[in-house]
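Quick one: structure for this chain?
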Amino acid sequence: MDKFPKRIGTFNLPLFDIQARYKDIMEDIESLLGDLLFLAEFVGGRFLDQFEKAFAAYHGYENDGSFVVGVGSGMDALILALKALEIGPGDDVIVPSHTFIASALAVTHVGANVKFVDVDPLTYNIDIDEVESAIGINTRAIIAVHLYGQPCNMDRLVELTSSKGLYLIEDCAQATGAKWDGKPVGTFGTCGCFSFYPTKPLGGIGQGGAVLSKNEDLISKIRMLGDVGRSTKYEMTEVGYNSRLDTINAHFLKRCLPRLDKWNARRRAISELYRIYLEDLNEIHLPYVDPKAEHVYHLFMIGVDKYIREELMVYLSKNFISSGLYYPIPCHKQPVYNYPMYLRVTEELADSLLALPMDTYMTEQHVEYISSHLIKFFRHRG
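Got it. Here's what it folds into:
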């Protein structure tokens, strides 16, 4: 069956197409549920253990689950990491405002104070100069978000946090498989927190996440906290949470993991096609990639004039091309925070960024079609 039904000679192009992305593992998926029903392992068990070991090995650690713990979501990964590091009331955690709000809410959930900072206008990642200025006597940690799939400048962040004695938590929710200077994200800081939400580079079949760290004691504590604070089967020594990566999701993710590099390479290839077709369109800003970064393009973000963004989205939709906004209300301006501060770059990006379709199902024909309509839109306006 054609994944892209034709409409008036055009394609219907979503931002994400999960079915198409996983079409090459359908046989694996069909046998997955049967395996679990036969073994009756729905929480924990061998499949979760196998995935944790495989995920650790993928990131260059020993094939040992003591370096990884699967949890219920990417946000849970952040909350449990902060909790295990004993960050709480009276502590400050520095977070970029241009990110999905879960990065900030995790800090609030443990009772610590969120200190929002601006982002770099080129990479859209946390502005390290702003971070340095924001560090105070109560600062305990920095959450560095590898936004849209591009790694932060880990050289500077590691140097800064090491010199100041701060924890460095990597939010890798959108960047599984991305690398900085040849090394996977999630392996630089105190720990890396991952999301396996279905649309992410390594997407599961529901909510899910993981924490990765070279500190085995930290992983052990997070595992305990995520298992209702259980130290033995019948003893609860901490006020814990019920946050575990379910077995069927772990089993599915283990089967996807060997394909992750191929999928990420495909996303990079699609991004290069966009650049080729759109390089002469001066009315938009294409994503910048740091020379030391290996981007995985969870999203392909372009910058447009804020006064025509909505008009462009309507035009694309009429031509069966999806587009999306990330993040039109910055974290510091969300009603839950509503901080009286001005972060220039973050607020400009909120008004100007637009996501184009980006996924492993795409072909050059899709990119050419999308690009041709972008060019037509601006040429007709001009």
